[in-house]
UniProtKB/TrEMBL annotation:
Signal peptide range: none
A GO molecular-function descriptor: metal ion binding
Binding-site residues, a divalent metal cation: 200, 202, 295
Designated name of the protein: Histone deacetylase
Subcellular location(s) of the protein: Nucleus
One cellular component (GO) term of this entry: histone deacetylase complex
Reactions this protein catalyses: N(6)-acetyl-L-lysyl-[histone] + H2O = L-lysyl-[histone] + acetate
Keywords: Chromatin regulator, Hydrolase, Metal-binding, Nucleus, Transcription, Transcription regulation
Taxonomic source organism: Hordeum vulgare subsp. vulgare
Stretches with biased composition (Basic and acidic residues): 432-456
Active site per database record: 165
GO process terms (BP): epigenetic regulation of gene expression
Length: 493
């Protein structure tokens, strides 16, 4: 890991490398289905978790207890009417009489409900268990934020979170509830300044919109901007120009880094590191939230960047090195094997063990998804695809960002500080699952240890993995049989 001279020892980890990391995973999210033709596949979180577990990383983290968010917690940001809509709407609403009002409201809120016989796909469909899904991933981000605020963790992870497009009363870009805004608001109860950084290929518009007049929150978004194709529409969501710098008291606390397509590791880090160095120097945050959208990886079904797993994780490593409380969230990512590889590796970066995990994908139930990347954690990124980075344009992007940062007033003190602590109001024991695998030794005497596999959802997940493994070996056997047949045919005796 590149320390860049900033990797300072923490109070709990004197060697400057390790961190106290907590981790949130809710097995229920894995079964959410946006639809057969939809790009969003929540099972990617289960795939990432299966790798994290198989690589032995769970033992290095404290597990957060699964606790869905409440209606009151969602209303801390979202409109009450919108929260009620999410709670009440069901997939069969279009098949019942008298539902015209709720259907009209849903469409006005960006939630697609097809008319009878209509086959159109929607970005934000009425999925089965919509409410349950929303409160599960939002609850994870709130728990992770509270773990940081309590002072018991240095880094908190929720790969099922990061839904940055959702607005106060509207779904957008596959996102229904903006767990990021909820988490930041929770952090603001305990920290004076919170920095939000977004490395999703899409602009973090929902988070920026809410905090654009706020001086205690700085939002920084690195994203693709411009036409999706020649003569076509702008790349979603079409916002986030360098001129968007915030409003009122929040002017210059919004920073956008709009980039062209085809950004590779070297070009991306050429922008990310100097810009983030200046952000950390000028804003001096007390906590950092990093949205790790994996659609900026090479080969994504929607993005058009060329980042490798290590290139993407370099952003995590760099921000980790400043030794400020860090919340890592998921986000976009639509080539699910790439997503799982990336978030697993970034989990290893968080605990300081990225150099110790093998590049060989271990047997864990989802192996066949990695066939196209040679069963390697780090998939290959071709050196070139004929698209050259415009060096002059990239330099202008950097200079525009640095010029906007020059207008940012420094905080009253250059020392990081917390507000008068309210963290005593956080029930730490209620946050953590002390009966998970990594707490086995703690609970051995009391015999309260509960194996994760005894959870009904985990049993189902394990059975699915076994079915996947059977399919993998069946496919492997067929391939070997073909190779033998081809060899016999080409070399007849």
């Amino acid at each position: 890991m590149d320390k860049e001279g900033h990797s300072l020892p923490s109070a709990s980890c004197a060697d400057g490398r390790k961190r106290r990391v907590c981790y949130y995973y809710d097995p229920g999210i894995a079964n959410v289905d946006y639809g057969a033709d939809h790009h969003m596949v929540p099972r990617r979180v289960a795939m990432a978790h299966a790798l994290v577990e198989k690589y032995g990383l769970l033992a290095d983290m404290e597990r957060l207890r699964v606790r869905p968010a409440t209606k009151a917690e969602l209303r801390a940001f979202h409109d009450d009417a919108y929260v009620r809509l999410l709670h009440d709407i069901t997939q069969d609403a279009d098949h019942r009489q008298g539902d015209a009002e709720i259907l009209e409201t849903a469409r006005a809120c960006g939630i697609g409900v097809p008319d009878p016989g209509e086959t159109a796909a929607y970005d934000n469909p009425v999925i089965d268990g919509l409410w349950d899904y929303c409160v599960r991933y939002a609850g994870g981000s709130l728990a992770a934020a509270r773990a940081l605020a309590s002072g018991t963790s240095d880094i908190a992870i929720n790969w099922s979170g990061g839904m940055h497009h959702a607005c106060q009363g509207r779904a957008s870009g596959f996102c229904y509830v903006n767990d990021i805004v909820l988490a930041i608001q929770e952090l603001l109860k305990h920290f004076e300044r919170v920095l939000y950084v977004d490395i999703d290929v899409h602009h973090g518009d929902g988070v920026e919109e809410h905090f654009k007049r706020e001086s205690r929150v700085m939002t920084v978004s690195f994203h693709r901007y411009g036409e999706d194709r020649p003569g076509g529409e702008k790349f979603f969501p079409g916002t986030g120009t360098a001129e968007d710098v915030g409003e009122g008291d929040g002017k210059y606390y919004t920073l956008n880094v709009p980039m062209d397509a085809h950004m590779d590791d070297e070009s991306y880090q050429h922008l990310f590191r100097p810009i983030m160095h200046k952000v950390m120097e000028k804003f001096v945050p007390d906590a950092v939230v990093l949205q790790c959208g994996a659609d900026s990886l090479y080969g994504d079904r929607l993005g058009n960047f060329r980042l490798s797993v290590k290139g993407h994780a370099g952003c995590v490593s760099y921000l980790r090195s400043f030794n400020v409380p860090l919340l890592l969230l998921g986000g976009g990512g639509y080539t699910i094997n790439h997503v799982a590889s990336c978030w697993c590796y970034e989990t290893a970066v968080a605990v300081g063990k990225e150099e110790g995990i093998s590049d060989e994908i271990p047997f864990h139930g989802y192996e066949h998804y990695y066939r196209d990347q040679g069963y390697k954690l780090h998939f290959t990124v071709p050196k070139t695809n004929g698209n050259k980075i415009d060096v002059a344009a990239m330099e202008k992007i950097k200079q525009d960002a640095l010029m906007n940062l020059a207008m940012l007033k420094p905080p009253p003190t250059t020392q990081r500080h917390r507000r008068p602590s309210k963290r005593h109001g956080i029930d730490v024991n209620a946050l953590f699952d002390h009966h998970s695998k990594n707490s086995k030794e703690k609970d051995k005497k009391s015999k309260k240890y509960r194996r994760e596999e005894d959870d009904p959802m985990e049993r189902l997940h394990r059975l699915c993995c076994e079915a996947d493994r059977y399919s993998f070996f069946t496919e492997l056997g067929k391939r070997k049989a073909c190779e033998v047949a081809n060899t016999t045919f080409s070399n007849p005796k």
